[in-house]
Design a protein that fits this description.
The chain is of the alpha/beta class and about 325 residues long. The chain folds into two domains: about 130 residues, Glycogen Phosphorylase B (Rossmann fold); about 150 residues, Rossmann fold (3-Layer(aba) Sandwich). The chain is built from 13 helices and twelve strands. The protein has a six-stranded parallel beta sheet, with helices on both faces. Strands 9-8-7-10-11-12 form a six-stranded parallel beta sheet, sandwiched between helices. Helix 7 links the parallel strand 7 and strand 8. The longest helix has 30 residues. The chain starts with a strand and ends in a 6-residue tail after the last helix.
């Protein structure tokens, strides 16, 4: 059985899931304007399916355009039948635009994969067949150029804030929290990743002195900072959203500061401090994480061992569901 996994972005869940499932991963990335990007990536996707003649096509949603394309190809290519399996992220189930298309997509997929039970309930309510598979704990291997750093020589508590400056990230509250902490516990410093978009976020003041805007980081630079961090903070205002930074923190054995939505609190049950995303709550979480750092680090190692055991069960379930797809 030939299984291909198609995504129009680089994202760690795609890599780890495809690897454990034994699927061919095809990360298609094009940096042109939106319409040109869709035209190029749609062409690449059609050519890939024509050339590889897969039995199963797994695709990431978002992109909603990719999802629609795969479902249509499944219908339009009767001479090359394949099963369509959608890996629906939170933004794929509740997109900011064209949400009315999602139930149609769900019902036409042979299987939908989601990261938690709350999302699974929503897919089933739309009439879809669904299984729950949280991200596998990634296997992060540092390059020679990005050797891990065991700690800060200046003794400060460094927090890596994993951000893409997306609409669901409480950037303003993070910056306000940094200012609160700067006055109360100046030893805590934040490094906020991603290309800064302060104007779009509405931040018109100077960035707090204890907050660094790193800009875009290469994989090697990100991994070096990940292993050097005292803690990782990855926040989202989306309900039922489990963020990639949490899985990366577990892989590196680093304590976490996460949003207090139900699936996140249930899954990352050790080694984490939770916040309601308000500035005061984020500031309290930063101080709590600093105070309980050694305890939280031990808990993360325990959680990592437990979740790696769960990965094997999850992948076995996904594989058992996908295998008969080729024969249906």
């Amino acid at each position: 059985m030939v299984t291909v996994w198609i995504t129009w972005e680089r994202q760690r869940r795609n890599r780890s899931m495809a690897q454990l499932l034994g699927a061919e991963l095809h990360e298609m990335v094009y940096r042109g304007r939106r319409l040109q990007r869709y035209r190029v990536l749609m062409g690449r996707t059609v050519r890939l399916i024509w050339r590889r003649k897969p039995d199963v096509v797994v695709f990431q949603n978002p992109s909603l355009v990719l999802a629609i394309l795969i479902v249509l190809l499944k219908t339009w290519m009767p001479w090359r039948r394949f099963k369509a399996v959608g890996d629906f992220h939170n933004a794929g189930i509740s997109p900011p635009h064209f949400a009315f298309v999602v139930p149609w997509l769900v019902r036409r997929c042979d299987l939908v994969i989601v990261s938690n039970e709350e999302l699974s309930k929503r897919v089933v309510a739309m009439g879809g067949k669904c299984i729950c598979a949280p991200d596998p704990i990634p296997q992060i291997t540092l390059s020679n150029e990005a050797q891990p750093v065991t700690g800060r020589s200046d003794g400060r508590f460094s927090v890596l804030c994993v951000c893409s400056w997306a609409a669901d990230e409480p950037i303003i509250d993070i910056l306000h929290a940094a200012r609160i902490v700067e006055a109360m516990q100046p030893g805590i410093v934040l490094s906020i990743t991603g290309r800064p978009q302060l104007d779009r976020c509405g931040w018109l003041e100077d960035v707090p002195r204890n907050a660094e805007l790193t800009g875009y980081l290469s994989d090697a630079d990100f991994e070096q900072r990940l292993f050097a961090a005292s803690a990782v903070m990855d926040l989202t205002t989306r309900p039922d959203c489990m963020v990639c930074g949490a899985y990366e923190a577990v892989a590196a054995g680093v304590p976490m500061i996460l949003s207090d939505n139900g699936p996140t609190m249930h899954y990352f049950r050790k080694g984490a401090v939770f916040t309601d995303n308000s500035a005061d709550s984020i500031a309290r979480a930063l101080r709590d994480c600093s105070a309980r750092h050694e305890q939280l680090r031990r808990e993360v190692e325990e959680l990592k061992s437990e979740l790696q055991g769960n990965d094997r069960d999850i992948i076995a379930k996904v594989t058992a569901t996908l295998t008969p797809c080729a024969d249906l």
